[in-house]
Write a structure and sequence with these properties.
Low-confidence stretches: 1-5, 211-218
Number of helices: 18
Largest sheet: 7 strands, antiparallel
Distance between the termini: 25 Å
Number of strands: 14
Structural class: alpha+beta
Strand content: 5-15%
Mean pLDDT: 93
Helix content: 40-55%
Shape: globular
Amino acid sequence: MTGRPESLAGALALVRGRPELGALRRGIEKESLRVTPSGALAATPHAPGLGSPLTHPHITTDFSEAQLELITGVHASAEDVLGELADIHRFVHANIGDELLWAASMPCILGPEAEIPVARFGSSNAGRSKTVYRLGLSYRYGRLMQTISGIHYNFSVPETLMSALARGRRPDADFATERYFALIRNFRRYSWLLIYLFGASPAVCKSFLRGADADRAPATRLEVWDEGTLHLPHATSLRMGRLGYQSDAQSSLHISYNGLAQYAATMRDALTKPYPPFEAIGVKVDGEYRQLSTALLQIENEFYGTIRPKRRVRSGERPLDALHDRGVEYVEVRCMDLDPFLPLGIDAVTCRFLDVFLLYCLLAESPPDSRRESEAMLANQTAIVERGREPGLTLANGNGRVPAVRWASELLDHCAQVAVEIDAVTGHGNHGAAVAEQRRKVLEPSATPSARVLSSLRELKLPFARFAMQRSNAHRHGFAEPPLTVDRLAELTAMSEASLAEQARIEAADSVPFDEYLARYLKLGHDA
């Protein structure tokens, strides 16, 4: 028995007045390219002052050596998580000389694809596997796509709130896992709304469209904006469309979110069955690794979804095994663009709305998904990505086609009900105000970040790359005041030094050849 309420109203009644509504948990992972003062991708290695990207808890790299990923801890308020993210930004700026953090999701001016540096994590087996995985991405999809950056928003609810949903009984890992998968199913149905509200990448530098990516340009019908910029007039987030994190190889892949068992089974197939185009690449060629495996997915993280079920992993543990053994711990939202108008790429209003939206997805009825529904969801996402602000746009909602504006308003009505309950506990109206701000964007598409980007290009008479560079410079100057406190600077410096020492310890402790290490790591436990 799951104790699942029959309606949103019933679920809200179960959590009404619970203090945990004011202590939802969130963390942020923010990707940003390092660029030179002229706006080119930085060719410098990861700065030593930032510590080891393999072991630092808050500062690592994503695909490229020039692509930082800044990671906060878990916090009980939007203010606290953004405060930590701001501190990390100040520390980074103090350690990268005259370089800047690119303010936009779509990349800076790029040179030849081969010059995009792949991230390096040292000589340990763990570090080498991370680099080989990234080399595999470059062989499979090209390096250009991997320079796109975004914000990942990690969300969970306190165990005592899960207990309320379980109608008072202790919520075991299976109950929490079931509820998080219900959240994920609803999120996938409704995440098009987030792409509309927060998408901020309607334009791209022409340098991004070359090589393999140029072949995809006709599919997105990009139009010329100026000598350096391509765009779509009603686009919201090209990052989330066919120019970004969509893969032809994965287009036929249906991952089921109808519980952990089905999710694991469909993921396992993608992780273990050879995929002929990737077999043609080879794994180890002339003594050098090109990829980790020839499966459709090298590892779980290669699947380009808008949201993921997550569990912190132990050393050497596969994410899928961690989920199997200990259940879902939190969800990772992956469809958020960097907002170039915000120094951190995200602000408290956005965080509060995400909290409301995710809690709504957790509480609302969530029927099983299907391959057919997944296809419809992808079609909705593509429509919003490319034509989200187009007057009269309709989407498929299972009962035919409905105007996107009407469906958005209905979802925001539900979110408003959730916001009322959170604000009743916190004693302020911030969550209701966050929902109201999103209503304004639905009624006034010109208020969306994507529309504001195009408006700025028009008013400033700047190509996309120069506009993004202008925003990047403004953000850097903004982080100069106030500076880090002496104690905070010392704390972050100590973290960097400790991470370098930890990397050295790991490298010294390696006792098996890389081939053997890799074979062990790629072997999934709990074989069906």
